[in-house]
C-alpha cells in the first residue's frame, strides 16, 4: 500500500523556496521550525531530493528529545527513515549519511515507484520536504495527499520557485498563524478521501490508553463544510471519537444531510456507556457514514455497528485504502 504523502515547505511572499545565493536561507521562524519538527515526529519517513542535500546539507532528524522519546514509547524508531531521491551516488560526506540517529536510503524512480518501494518498507506516513524539483514532480504525479505551505514574511526576489501542476486542485483545510508565519494546509483528492484521511490523522491527538483504540472522526455538512471533529478520550477518558463530536453538534439541523467520517467502524455495543456509537449516529439523524478500518478481530463477537447502521437506512462506505493510516496510531501515545 502506498504511504499517505504530506508535502511540506516554506515559501517567501513572492513564492520562492530559497534565494539565489549559495548559503542556506531559513525562511520561516523558530515557531514554525518547531511545528515542522512535530510533523516530522508523526511520520515514518522524510524524503528530499539530492538538490536539497547538495544545497542545504540537512540532517533530517527529529530535533526534540521529548518527541524522540515519545516515538520510542510508541515502539517507533526515534527519528523517521531518511530518504534521498537521486539518480547518482550521494556525497558520502552529506550529513544525511554521516549523522547518526536514523537510517538513510537513496532511491530513484518515478514518484509512484518510490512510494511503492517505501510502502513495501512499512512506511505509512511520508513527509516530502523538498526541494523545488521534487515538490513539482510529486504534485504533478498527483500523489500528494496533504500540502503544508508556510508563507514567511520575506521578499526574496530570485531563486527556486514553488511550482506544481495546474491540473491538481488543492482544497483548503486550515489556516493558522505560526509566529510571524502563516500556515496554509491543503488536501488533494476526492472529498471522501480528503475527509477520511483527516479523521485518520486525528488519531494522533488521542490521549494514550492501554486498553482502548485511538479513533478520529470528522463530520461534514452537505455543502462540504466541516461541522466538527472528535477523537477518542478528547473530553472524557471513556469518550469514543464519534461521541464527542455528536455531543458538540446535538440538535444541529445540518446533521441529516451530513456525513460522518471515522477511522474505525462505529461500535455496535459497548460496556462503558448505555449507547453504542451506531445508536448515537442513528439518533442524531446523520445520513451517511464513511470509515477506513473494519472492527478488529477481537470485536467480531460484538454486534456490528455497520450492520446496525445499514438496518437503519444509513448509507455506509468502507474505504480500505485508508486502513493503514487508521491503524498506524490506533494504539499510539500522543506526542
Ligand atoms: N523552502 C523550503 O521549504 C525548502 C525545502 C527544501 C529545499 N528547498 C530549496 O530547494 C532547493 C533545491 O531544489 P532543487 O529543485 O534544486 O532540488 P531537489 O528537488 O531537492 O532535488 C532534485 C534532485 O533530486 C533528484 N531526483 C528528483 N526526482 C528524482 C527521481 N524521481 N529519481 C531520482 N532522483 C530524483 C535528482 O538528483 P540527481 O541530480 O542527484 O540525480 C534531482 O536533481 C534548494 O535551494 C533548497 O534550499 C527549500
Ligand atoms: Zn464507539
Instruction: Give the N-terminus to C-terminus distance in angstroms.
Output: 25 Å
Strand count, sense and barrel status of the largest sheet are: 8 strands, mixed
Helix content: 25-40%
DSSP helix count?
Answer: 11
Name given to the CATH homologous superfamily of the largest domain: Dihydrofolate Reductase, subunit A
Instruction: Classify the fold: give the CATH topology of the largest domain.
Output: Dihydrofolate Reductase, subunit A
Approximately what portion of the residues adopt beta-strand conformation? Answer: 15-25%
C-alpha Rg (nearest Å): 21 Å
Which sequence of SSEs, written as H and E, runs from N to C? EHEHHEHEHEHEEEHEEHEHEHEH
Shape: globular
Give me the CATH architecture of the largest domain, please.
3-Layer(aba) Sandwich
**What's the CATH class label of the largest domain?**
Alpha Beta
Mean pLDDT: 94
Low-confidence stretches: none
The bound ligands are: NADP nicotinamide-adenine-dinucleotide phosphate, zinc ion
Structural class: alpha/beta
Order the strands across the largest sheet as they lie in space. 4-3-2-5-1-6-8-7
Structural key phrases:
23% strand, single chain, alpha/beta, 5-stranded mixed sheet, 8-stranded mixed sheet, 2 domains, Dihydrofolate Reductase, subunit A, 335 residues, binds NADP nicotinamide-adenine-dinucleotide phosphate, binds zinc ion, Cytidine Deaminase, domain 2
